[in-house]
Design goal:
globular, Arc Repressor Mutant, subunit A, alpha+beta, 3 domains, 6 helices
Length: about 250
Amino acid sequence: MSTAELHTLTGAYALHALPEDERVAFERHLGACEACAQEVRELSATAARLGLAVSATPPPALRERVLRKITTVRQEPPPHGRGARPTSSARRAGRWSTYALAACVAAAAAFGGVAVWQNQVAQDARQETDRAQRHNEQVARVLTAPDARTTAADLGDGARGTVVVSRSVNKAVFLASDMAHPPDGKVYQLWFDEGGTMRSAGLMNPAATDDAVLMDGPLDRASGMGITVEPAGGSDRPTSAPVALMEFETA
């Protein structure tokens, strides 16, 4: 994707509407383009205000509507006379009324279950969207910080790594491009280097060759970072030779 095309993605990025590959490419571009960074900040603020302006309360649940409908099903009257036996037509009508009521109850239960399931799915989707939005906002905050500093390194086999740090935000973002997949059962783990002591800074997505990772934990006194190959789930301390060691830009 050309630089000219990247300049046109600010609106889609602010609305979290970019596919994964374009999002990663744009975030790499965002770290070096102050014009796009400023536009993203302005568009994100506008989108947030518009979202608040159009918020609305959802309609009542389907389950409640079905339960109200059940109350309108007419019950068959009892047969006339204390000892009277119901006619065959009355018995059939009674059975059908019972079946109808049972069907309504079953429908209410089913619709109630579907409503609960749909509500849970919607809540899960909202939570996932919220997590992605918070991640993107934090990444953008680091990349667009006035004191953001960038360091890039060749990771071998055509792979490229870039780390952006902001002391004012106290966070770092690692951007990877064309990284080889780790071996089966392994994962790339990121580390903050604090005077030779390595502190875990999170795991990369083993399925992604291009990735934008908000490094876990505060920047604090870290002066650099490292990448190692670790067992799935990560390690408490590095267990392999580093794939890369990068010093943070300080000026």
